[in-house]
Amino acid sequence: MIVDQIGEIAHGVHMLGHPAVPVFLVEGDRPALFDAGLAFLGPVYARQIQRILGDRHPAWCFLTHSHFDHCGAVAYLKDRFPQMKIVASKRAADVFERPNAISLISDLNQFAAGMAVDLGVDPGDTNFEPFRVDVTAGEGDCFEISPDLTVKAMETPGHTRDFLSYTIPQCKLLVSSEALGTPDETGYIVTDCLVDYDIHYQSMERLNTLDVETLCLGHIYACTGSDARHHMTESLLQSRRFYKMAVQFLTEENGYIPAVMKRIKSFEWDGKHGLRQPEPAYVLNLEARVNTVLRKWQASREPDQPTIYAKTAT
Ligand SMILES: [Zn+2]
Question: Could you tell me the distance, in angstroms and rounded to a whole number, from the CA of residue 69 to the centre of ligand 1?
C-alpha cells in the first residue's frame, strides 16, 4: 500500500508532520523518532508525538543525513524531550559543528517556512537552532527500542556522504529516506545521486537485499507490502534510466550542462502539479546529479568514444 496520509502506517509505526516532510515514530519501551524534518513543523511533530506517547518521551532521534529538511526541528524536539538522544553518523555530526553549514541549514529552513501555507500549517515562529549529536553511529551499530525491537544502522552514502539508513529487522522496517529514489506526487521517482552515481547505486543495491515490509521514504509517501518492494526495485531501474537519459542529453548538447539541466527540468519540475521541492534547491541538486553522471560516463568511456567536457554557463 502507498501511504500518503499522516497516521499509523504499520503496527506501532507512525508517519508524523506532513507527508511532504515526514518524520517517523516507532513505539516501544524506548520509542524512536527517525529524522526531524523542517524547523517550522517542530510544534506539529511534538503535538503528534505527545498524542501517541502521552507522558512518555521518545528515547532516540535517528538522523539519516545532514540536509536541512531532515534535521530542521532537532533542537526544538530536544528542548521538548530532553532525555531524547540524537543519533547520526560521525560525518553528519561533524557537519552540524561547522558554522557555515549551520548558517546554510538555518537559511534554508527560513526559506522553507514559506511552504507552510501550501502544507496547510501555521508557520509559527520556530526557527532552526544548532544542536549537538549525542551518539555517533556507523555500519552495524544497534540500538534497542524494546527487547524484541532493535534499530540497526547501515551506511548508505551516495545522496550525501554522511548517510545512514536504519532497519528494524524484527518488523521488516526500513528507513531509507533519500538513500532510495524519492517520489514526487505523480509517482515519478527522482534519482538523487548527489555525490556519486555508482556509490548511490551500490547503496540502493544493498538496501534491495533486505526483506522489507514497511518502507519509510524521505518525502511524499511511505509504502508497505508489495508497494515497498516495488519502490525499491523501481529505484534501481529509474536510476539506470536517468543515467542513460542524462548521457544521451550530454552527448546531444556537447556537454553543455545548463542545456541538459533545462531538458531534464522540463519534465521533472516545470509544470508539475502538487508539492515540489523549492526551485533553487531542485536546480542545485539537478546540477549535482548531472555532474555525477558526467563523471561516471567520462570514467567508463571507450577509447574510440569522443570525450565530452562539461561546459557551464559563462
Ligand atoms: Zn537529502
Answer: 7
